[in-house]
Amino acid sequence: MDLNLFQSGLASGREALLAGDGAAAVAIFERLAMATVSDAEARYWLASALLAIRDTQGAAIAMDDARILHTLALARVMGADIDRCRADASYAADIATRLYQQNHVAMSGVVRALALSSGGIEASGLLSYGLTLQHQGRTEEASEVFRAAVETFPSSQLHQFLLYPLLLSDDGDARYAAEAREWARLYALALPAEPHPNPCRDGRKLRVAYLAPSFAGTQVRQFIAPLLEHHNRAQVAVTLYPAIAGTEKDWPSWIDVHPIGHLSDADVADLIRRDRIDVLADCWGHSAGSRLLVFARRPAPVQVGWINFIQTTGLGQIDYIMHADAPNFLPTDGLFTERIWRIGPVFNAFRPPDGRLAPTQTPALRTGQITFGSFNHPVKLSDRTFDAWAAILRQAPSSRLLLKYRYFDDPVLQRVTQARLAARGVAPERLIFAGHSHGADYFRAFGDVDLMLDAWPAPGSTTTLDALSNGVPVLGLGGPTLAGHYTSSILVASGLPELAATDPSDFVERALDLTADPMRLDALRARVRPNFEKGPVCDGAAYTARVEVAFGEMFDLWRRNQRPTVGDA
């Protein structure tokens, strides 16, 4: 097809689509796709138009075609031998790994599929493929790949990768809880109970321990640091069980560090018993590197799941999950094998990052337009989230949206994201993409955003807390879900209840109202950081005191042989 005719056709189809005439757009883009068999752009627009008329199956096919054609063209430019990828599984896997390391997760997924199709089916390949899908936000597809991997190469570690994408699906809380129970049934075999000789705590310190692959070198640091630095050494003795000791040099010197990375689960359990731990807290959940099977051996009389996961572990051997107070929290029937212990107004304390810059005025005062933003992982950008975001952008036509995450370095993921929002009436040029940054560059990025838009069903956590600590308002979705409870607890505890929407329609209305007057938005912005810093999220001392009381009460309950049951404490 003549290039001018092609460009004219794209423009006509785009105009029809953004005007709301999806059927006319489909007819135009179908003709262009048939006339240009190797062109990705016509297929991206065709996918958008098919999504607009709710032909999800046809849209998925068109999007796959666009993603593949786009990736192969880019990979050739980058020096990859595509013909060899189709015939040589090892070579294709190597190219896919290199692309993944460059944060090109969508491109990596296409090439990884070539490796699998050319005979390279193994556990590591399936896991890598599933992760590339997950990082793009293709969670149902990722779940199917992880389930196939588990059925072909059964293992407790591989099975844990299946759990996270379920949280991001429809009815995710229930699906995740069912799968966590299944994981425990398969791998956390019940062992004969051994008695614990731990004496009552009268006249002695409570012996508390935390277990995770790493505390100082992971996302856990900003949550565990306020706790470790405020523990009352006169009341508790604290032990950390990381994989290696070398990462844990910054904690108070009186805290014991016992590395366990070289030990089997049975040996770790024996070590914990010898240390006479009273309360053992898992700080990792079902994330990669988990040692939950240690807890299945019940090495401590009281065992708690906490910090990195707010969902159930599925293990009957873990007694409690700690949650924030919530008078109207949803019924938990079927969602937990543990008992919920209320810990106060927030789930955890948080240490704002070092090096933050002074908060800025809302940028619309200098740019003349509203910039919405999200620094969330692309896996969290669900269709339901995009429905609400697009409604906001359509009703605020001069606004734009900044999406920042390291995987947005991938040009294919960028174009797919544009196509998903174009299906909802948002022109591609209204999106701004940014990749990873750190230090001052990271903090300066918050000065470009007037209002952060949170996602669901999986909301931001560290990204939300980072934004608030840098003085940027975050509009979140509360409501009767675990994620909604988590989001609203942060915003309400920070004295910002107007940022906690009750449902998606309310979310859209609040976004438009908050940004209608930049001066009023700036007044809100001036409250964000001070409110956050003086609120309970940043009050590590008070939070730690509540934790110590909770752990003591849990231990006293055990001493009185009052075994916990599922439900509220």
Helix and strand topology:
Elements: H1 3-18, H2 22-35, H3 40-52, H4 56-77, H5 82-87, H6 89-101, H7 105-117, H8 123-136, H9 139-152, H10 156-160, H11 163-167, H12 172-187, E1 206-211, H13 221-230, E2 236-241, E3 256-257, H14 265-274, E4 279-282, H15 292-295, E5 302-305, E6 320-323, E7 339-342, H16 364-367, E8 371-374, H17 383-395, E9 400-404, H18 411-422, E10 431-434, H19 439-445, E11 451-453, H20 462-469, E12 474-477, H21 482-493, E13 500-501, H22 504-515, H23 518-534, H24 540-559, E14 567-568
Parallel strand pairs: 1-2, 1-4, 2-3, 4-5, 5-6, 6-7, 7-14, 8-9, 8-11, 9-10, 11-12, 12-13
* Oligomerization category of the chains in this entry: single chain
What is the residue-averaged pLDDT? 94
Main pleated-sheet profile: 8 strands, parallel
Into which percent range does the helicity of residues fall?
Answer: 40-55%
Question: Which homologous superfamily in CATH is the superfamily of the largest domain?
Answer: Glycogen Phosphorylase B
Coarse shape: globular
**What's the total number of strands?**
14
- What is the number of helical segments per DSSP (H or I, 4+ residues)? 24
As a percent range, the share of strand residues is 5-15%
CATH topology type of the largest domain? Rossmann fold
**SS-based structural class?**
alpha/beta
CATH architecture of the largest domain: 3-Layer(aba) Sandwich
**CATH structural class of the largest domain:** Alpha Beta
Distance between the termini: 69 Å
Q: Whole-number radius of gyration?
A: 25 Å
Estimate nothing, just give the exact number of structural domains: 3
- Strand order, sheet with most strands: 3-2-1-4-5-6-7-14
Instruction: Provide the low-confidence segments as ranges.
Output: none
